[in-house]
Here is the input.
Amino acid sequence: HSIHALEVEDVVRQAGVSRGTFYKYFPSIPGLYGALSRQLMLEVAAMMEDLVPHGVGCMLMKVIAQQMSHLSQRNCVFRRS
Here is the structure.
């Protein structure tokens, strides 16, 4: 299965929740992707705090976050190439 073909029904079936529950937390499949991307960024930032000197890690995360924000505003984060 491709993430490009993912539908809300696929997510709710796999998660064992209703469509209403899905839409309570996410406005759409791209909204779900955005939330997953943000969560991943938070986890990467937490790991970087332990591995990289503070100033450098913060600078890298700021650049990455800006790029992710720019891509998500253009709705390109998970678009097929």
In short: Residues 77-81 have pLDDT under 50 and may be disordered.
